[in-house]
């Protein structure tokens, strides 16, 4: 599959991130716990390298806990602070204040020594589309200030949001990068919904997802779709899943578009199981 999606507003967002960095103390980058590497925008690494950074591994409830812990340890070994969170339920978000205070302790100490009492930390929230930035901000602000949606590209303009913990957040639209050099990265982004389904062949994407899940979690795939065995042929597995789910058209042929959408939706909702597509390197 040849997957690329870089609408005009993403280029504008990159320029805004660079221009607004001087307004913030640190960067909060949100990634998808299922695809920690693929959801790391290399442009954000370059743009935000001058600022301290805290990474939130969102949607950790959709991933195996042991693997999420390994990812946190992996990032920590590279001097990057990371916290597993669920921005919808709020799980893990209570650890953000302490993590930020630790990252900013030297600056906070300087401010206290100058007699500043009400210390406010300003953070820019960045990440790829549909990773949960708006849900995070809404949870932190205790109301629905930022727009949310189950599709990428909902947030278009920057906005400041105040919280009750001495933290001000600058929201930014989700941004990808102009060209994917590794199609596995592009597939992982597409699997999790970071790339609009409208620009992708759903049938082919579902085929690739079934192929991947057959390799990394065959038992979960078989259990969800009541398969007695898996074939080495992903297309045959897709066909059998379609039959099991009754996604057939006249003449008994499988409706691959329909079953493709079912599989993608169920994977993204965690109904197939808690699955990490990417594993941390040792």
TrEMBL record:
Keyword line: Cytoplasm, GTP-binding, Nucleotide-binding
GO CC term, one of those recorded: cytoplasm
CP-type G domain segment(s): 11-178
Family per similarity comment: Belongs to the TRAFAC class YlqF/YawG GTPase family. MTG1 subfamily.
Function: Required for a late step of 50S ribosomal subunit assembly. Has GTPase activity.
GO biological process terms held by the UniProt record: translation
Compartments where located: Cytoplasm
Primary subcellular site in the record, as a coarse category: cytoplasm
UniProt binding sites for GTP: 58-61, 130-135, 174
GO molecular function: GTP binding; GTPase activity
Protein name in the entry: Ribosome biogenesis GTPase A
Pfam families listed in its UniProt record: MMR_HSR1 (PF01926)
